[in-house]
Amino acid sequence: MKRSTDRILTTHAGRLPNPSNMESIRAARAAGDQARADALVKEGIQEAIRRQIDLKNDIHSDGEFWKGRDQAYFDARASGITSRPAEPEEPITMLNTMAERHNGDFNDFYAIYDRLGNTPVPGTDNPRATSRWVINGPVEPKGREQSNREVALVKSAVEAAGVSIEDFFFPVISCGWLGHSVWNEYYATEEEYVYAMAEFFRADYEAVADAGFILQIDDPDLVDAFCMFWPPISIEEYRKYVTLRIDALNHSLRNVPEEQIRYHTCWGSWHTPHVTDLPFQHTADIMLRVKAQAYSVEAADAQHVLDYRVWDDLKFPDDKIYIPGVVAHKTTTVEPPEVVADRIITYANIMGRENVIAGTDCGYGGRVYPDIAWAKMRAMAAGAELATKKLWG
């Protein structure tokens, strides 16, 4: 995994704004034309690569615009996961049980937010979900055929763009994150349920690593699920909840080398008050148990801009890499390069400059409008250049 050996490198959390041919991709998929859809996805990935290079981003992703978790996605990987109509009192996802929704302080806000979402489109309301994903039978993996096919498609796009696969990471979600929206209606214990979801992803994890990519584990669940329990649970109970999921994640990563793994966590991508966010200090030590070479953590949002103080009391391992978010994904404000540089330097002074890579709080795509996303990427590169001058002279 690359380090900032002679300058501060930049990266992001994976999701980028959709490419210009996104509507054509959707049309090809709707028509069942897999070959054309694959060709268009390959073009879209190359467009994303060119954009990242133009904006001086160092460690890239494919943009993740082509991914989706529908019935075909689940069926291609394992049995046991399906959707059914939700009963009126049933939450569709854990987002429906967030404490902010129940304490009465933000009722008017949520009435608007639920209609419009993070990036409102004039004259368009978000459709209300009516189906609930459930595990209704044994989750039995079906092998690596689909995982290998998708990874090969991305790899072919990277090679066609003429860039090195060493400059790429490939995000896959964690069992904890899947559990935000896939409910257990089959397994007798929480442990069986969590380990079944972890095993569901093992083929993806191993296919990504075998292809030579850096595997990024997307796991907001480390911190963000705390505010989704209603009635609320204690810190001690939440640490047990998280520890079970991290143990299951590590088990599913058993065949992937640590030096090929980076781990991402954040407090979610919804543009809401976040007044019930869990302080990072309560699970930072559990994060360090994850089998990973690098840790990407939200750090630019107003609720978490002081989280660097966690490392006053908790020692960051000398051989690891830290990727703090130095631009936020929940605000349309574009951070000045001087602010980005200051944030980078703060973490470099804690972890060592060679152990810090500048990152984002979470993905740009779908969280801010595209032109703002690209402006933030440009600002991060400029801030990294300023930090490099300060740190290397």
Task: Walk me through this protein's architecture.
This protein has 393 residues and is of the alpha/beta class. It has helices spanning 22-30, 34-54, 71-77, 107-116, 145-160, 175-178, 190-210, 235-252, 284-287, 310-313, 337-351, 370-392; strands spanning 81-85, 131-135, 169-173, 182-184, 214-218, 261-265, 294-297, 321-327, 359-360. It has a six-stranded parallel sheet. β6, α9 and β7 form a beta-alpha-beta unit. α1 (22-30) runs antiparallel to α2, α2 (34-54) crosses α5 and α7 (190-210) packs across α8. The chain is globular and about 60 Å long. The model has no long low-confidence stretch (mean pLDDT 97).
Helix content: 25-40%
Spatial shape: globular
Major pleated sheet:
6 strands, parallel
Strand order of the largest sheet: 3-5-6-7-8-9
Short description:
The protein is α/β, with parallel strands linked by helices. 39% of the residues lie in helices and 10% in strands.
Write the SSE topology.
Layout: H1 22-30, H2 34-54, H3 71-77, E1 81-85, H4 107-116, E2 131-135, H5 145-160, E3 169-173, H6 175-178, E4 182-184, H7 190-210, E5 214-218, H8 235-252, E6 261-265, H9 284-287, E7 294-297, H10 310-313, E8 321-327, H11 337-351, E9 359-360, H12 370-392
Parallel strand pairs: 2-4, 3-5, 5-6, 6-7, 7-8, 8-9
Antiparallel strand pairs: 1-2
Helix pairs in contact: 1-2, 2-5, 7-8, 11-12
